[in-house]
From TrEMBL:
This is Phosphoserine phosphatase. Coiled coil: none annotated. It comes from the Bacteria. Gene3D superfamilies: HAD superfamily/HAD-like. Its cofactor is Mg(2+). The gene is serB. It catalyses: O-phospho-D-serine + H2O = D-serine + phosphate; O-phospho-L-serine + H2O = L-serine + phosphate. Its EC number is 3.1.3.3. It comes from Chromobacterium subtsugae. One of its GO terms (molecular function) is hydrolase activity. Pfam families: HAD. Belongs to the HAD-like hydrolase superfamily. SerB family. Keywords: Amino-acid biosynthesis, Hydrolase, Magnesium, Metal-binding, Serine biosynthesis. Pathway: Amino-acid biosynthesis; L-serine biosynthesis; L-serine from 3-phospho-D-glycerate: step 3/3. InterPro entries: HAD-like_SerB, HAD-like_sf, HAD_sf, P_typ_ATPase, PSP.
Amino acid sequence: MSAQKTLVVLAPQPDPQHLADIARLAGGQPTVGEGAARIRAVLPEHRRQAIEQCRRHGYDAAYVDSDKRLGDFGLLVSDMDSTLINIECIDEIADIKGLKPQVAEITERAMRGELDFGAALKERVALLAGLPESALEQVYRERLRLNPGAEALLAACRGLGIKTLLVSGGFTYFTDRLKADYGLDYAYANQLEIVDGRLTGRLTGDIIDAAAKQRLLMATRDALQLRADQVLAVGDGANDLPMLREAGVGIAYHAKPMVSAEADIAIERGGLDAILQLFL
């Protein structure tokens, strides 16, 4: 028997008529709380229509197991660029060299799954050759910010003893600093080669691509002796899909359409703290 589901409508002040329309499709009575409405005893045959109705009204929404709580998870896995943080680091580094349009176009196509990730990464990194290492510090200090709700989500995980894994197709310069500054438990990314204080345009070590992200999730999960259903993963690009599939719950955050379509849950309007509303 499948677990009882609850439709969570993420809306601080939902329109009563909108909520009534959604509840009719879902087949239950809504309970309105701070930041979300919850509808139990839903009709499974109408799930897709109910989610589409929520989106038409401008609300994020998701079906979750009714008895699932955030504390039931033991590991949160997150992508970095455009997921935990507000920028694509490589695009901002390129901007300092005056190459942002060229690099950003490749980044966008790679995130949509139109290009081989490893080849696209090497192509973009090659364009950064000659930049001083100080450009990385400039991006971290002046341009990089956590996405809305990230600090609240990370604080909730710390409070519940949920381990946090940052796994990125970006660079260790940024993941290492985020790990230290925000108390993350694990962080993996690509290593830029730097010689005499300047970027060479090459990487060292293995590339953290889609398959590597999935492997790192699995290895960390196994080391912590967790089940698949105890892992929550968040990402936005095509290279995040294998790890989202591997997780017990995969969440697309302001993601590319193909990722939102395949993930268990898509957050398209709210912040990362919306996850806290899903699993109270």
